[in-house]
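Subject line: Sequence and fold of a protein, written as C-alpha cells
Body of memo: The sequence and its C-alpha cells, given next.
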Amino acid sequence: MTQAHDPDTETEVLLASLKSFFFPGGQDAGRLVRGVKTTQHGEMCSAPGARWMPFTAVERIDATQSSFCWEARVGGSKLGSFVVTDAFEEGRGRLVVKLGGLIPLKKFSGPDFDKGEIQRYFSSILMCPPMLLNHSSLEFTAIGNRTLRVRDHSDPTGATVDFGIGEDGCPVTCRAERPRLVGKRSVLTPWSGTCSEFKEWNGLRVAHRIEVCWHLPEGAFTYFREEITSYTLM
C-alpha cells in the first residue's frame, strides 16, 4: 500500500535540513541574533546590453521582522556617482536614487514595490539565516520537488519566494514572480537568485557571492552580482 504524501512532514524535513546547513554548529549560534549588517561590493546592470556599473553597499537585515535597508554608492567618482536606497520598512517598499547622495533623481513606491521588496527580504535568508529562528510571522510550506516556499502571514500582498533545497540542505536557488519596472509600469516576471559560495561567520553559514537575474522571454538577464566583504551580528 502506497504511503500518503504528508506535506507537513515534508515541510518539517526540508526546514530541518535548511537549518542544519545554515547552523553547522547548532542553532544556538542564531537564537539571540536580532539582525545582521553586511558590507558588499559588486556590479549591476540596468538592461540587457547596458554597461555594468560597480557599487559598494551597506545592508542591514532584521531577523525578527520583515525589514531591510540596502544603501549603495554606484559608479565612479563621488560627484559622478549615485546613491541607491532599496528598502522594505514598516510594511512598505521603496527605491530611491540620488545623484551624489544629495540630489533626488528617482523615487519609487506603491503596492508593486511593497511586494517586490518583501520578496527581496525573503531571499535574504541566504545572508541572514537567524530569520528562520527569530521571525515569528514567517511561514514555510513544502510545495514538492525539495522546494520550500516562504511567506509572511502578516503581509497583505501575499508575496512568496521558493527555495530549492539540495540533499545537503544547501539552498540551491530562490525563485519568485516579482514585479519588474518596464518604463512606467511594472510587469510580473520570473526572477531568481543563486549563491556560488557560502562561508562561515560567527557560527553561521551564509552566502558570500550572489548572482541575480530576470528570466525574460528572450532569455535570462543577469543584472546583479555581489560579494560580501564584512559580516556583523546585531
